[in-house]
Amino acid sequence: MFNVDVFQLPSIAESTVSVIRVLYGVLLALTLLGALPHAKRYFMSEKWGGYGQSHWCVTAIQNPLVFPCIFGLWLAAALALMVGVWVVSAAFVNLIACWYFFVQMRWRGILRGMGAPGFLTFWLGAAVFVLEYTYRYASHLSSLALFVLQIDFALIFLSAGIYKFSSGYRWNNGMELGLVNPQWGYWLKLWRSFPPNHWTFWTLNQLAWTTEIVGAILMLIPQTRLLGGMLILCSFIFIASQIRLGFLCEMVIVACLLFVGPDSVGADWLSFMSLSSIGQATPVLPVVLVECLNQILLIGLWMYLLLLPIARAGLAYNFYFRKRLPSFLQSALDNYTNLFGIIIWRVFSADITNFFINVYEKQVAGGEERLVSRWGEVTALRYNQVAESIAVTSIFTTLKYYVSNRQLFIERLLRYARTLPYQPGTLFRFEYVSIVKQRSRFQLVPIVNYQVDLGKNQVTESILSSVVSVQEAAHSSPVHEGAQPGSYRPEDK
After folding, report:
1. Strand, helix or coil at 367?
2. Is residue 28 situated within a structural domain?
3. Closest Cα partner for 1 from 340, 336, 294, 286?
């Protein structure tokens, strides 16, 4: 169909594919089991006490009758991937579940599809499915599939690196904020003992954006694919030791193994690690069905590859140039990118990490106020989860991303408050605390209180400080008001 020789298509050993599948299965199982105590909030619709937006389709799936069946099948798929049984079917079931909860629910729930950890779970799940299928039923497409995955992965990190560069990392405004933020950092006391302008922070910030851009470029060049993948892998080993991101770092590390070719350094070690042969338990499918599926896959891979740079260019045009495309093209861009979860990776930038939220509760009748959100504490089951940090942060970034749509923020905040343990007469206070960098220290400044009275379905705002505005993007950030969730096109003025 196309001349592929010019691309110098990569290859990967069957044992490496097996290792990727097993490791992904383990991480997926841990993700699902870790989410199980919080499943009502994470995976139920608002009608049933969850984070999902009320909608007939959401409610039909995310309810106490249907979801337990889905979750059981989802967990069974993870176990099947681990042990190497019915792996193509298991990978397909997992792909559908991940696509729905982590991609399609990104704009329909305050969990935002579990953010970057959720998206990487989906993306790596898609990679496992495509590789397992091609090696079993379409070996002639395995190199093309791997090539598409490598390009996609590289562009993800190129997007992330460019955003970090443009949003303040090069001016030493980024990494340090997350390290001292109780919603994200592991070693708060250590990093808060450093002054904000310390050379360690400057070094980490420069390494953050340069590693992602350089690593991405290297992954796009056939001769340096492995080097680029290993550069990203090593960086995420360090990140995993510092920042609470669920299994995002581990998912990225496993994804980097896609760049280990059969003759690469480490291929023999991965072959030794292989726990099950890729050829086991391969059901025989009708020839006609396989040929049909292979043709669909071939066309799909080429279309995705050709449209990927166009889609990312369109997102950049919307976001960085603050311009919208003609209506038809803009609609096509929004629908296509939302279908596959293609976004501008704003992970761990200042607009997200320069504040945190303290949640308090008290009774109207009186009594002491109690801190609910004990971020990062082992005993605080709810607030020790990265998904909770993502949910709370996504609510309050609404103030920056959709300045004119105040009702969207109020609706999201009320929905979240309804998931908190509640008794008649209970008031909740959400304290927006800004992390302000002074010459010698980080200062934690309460900016605004948002009091939520669920009895009256009311949110009351009281400003505590004018040091910063909750509606303003961080210094040097390219963030601007968007038209609506799910699109980067600017708001009509």
Report:
1. strand
2. yes
3. 294
In a domain, 407, yes or no: yes
**3-state SS record for 24-87:** HHHHHHHHHHHHHHHHHHHHCEHHHCCCECCCHHHHHHCCCCCHHHHHHHHHHHHHHHHHCCCH
37 and 172 belong to one structural domain: no
pLDDT digits (tens, 9 = 90+) for 211-250: 999 999 999 999 999 999 999 999 999 999 999 999 999 9
User: How far is Cα 107 from Cα 406, in angstroms, rounded to an integer?
Assistant: 17
Q: What is the DSSP string of 429-469?
A: EEEEEEEEE-SSSEEEEEEEEEEEETTTTEEEEEE---SS-
Which residue's entry shows tokens 């070094």? 203
DSSP codes joined into one string, 253-276: HHHGGGG--TTSTTHHHHHHH--S
- Express each pLDDT in 128-161 by its tens digit: 999 999 999 999 999 999 999 999 999 999 999 9
- Do residues 199 and 321 both lie within one domain? yes
120 and 58 share one domain: yes
pLDDT digits (tens, 9 = 90+) for 35-81: 999 999 999 999 999 999 888 888 899 999 999 999 999 999 999 99
User: Across the strands, what pairs with 436?
Assistant: 443
Tokens of 18: 């097996």
Give the angle 16-17-22 at the CA atoms, nearest 5°: 95
pLDDT digits (tens, 9 = 90+) for 71-123: 999 999 999 999 999 999 999 999 999 999 999 999 999 999 999 999 999 99
In a domain? residue 275: no
Domain that holds residue 337: 147-245+284-344
Same domain, 169 and 86: no
Instruction: Give CA–CA dist 376/244, Å, rounded.
Output: 8
Q: How far apart are CA 162 and CA 345, in angstroms?
A: 9
Cβ atoms of 147 and 261 closer than 8 Å: no
Task: For residues 227 and 218, give the distance between their C-alpha atoms in angstroms, rounded to a whole number.
Answer: 7
Those residues with Cβ within 8 angstroms of residue 136's Cβ, 6 or more apart along the chain or in another chain = 88, 278, 279, 282
Quick one: tokens of 49?
């006490």
**Residues 360, 334 within the same domain:** no
> How many other C-beta atoms lie within 10 A of the C-beta of residue 491?
16
Q: What pLDDT does 280 receive? A: 56
Domain count, the chain: 3
Cα radius of gyration (the chain): 23
Inside any domain, residue 482: no
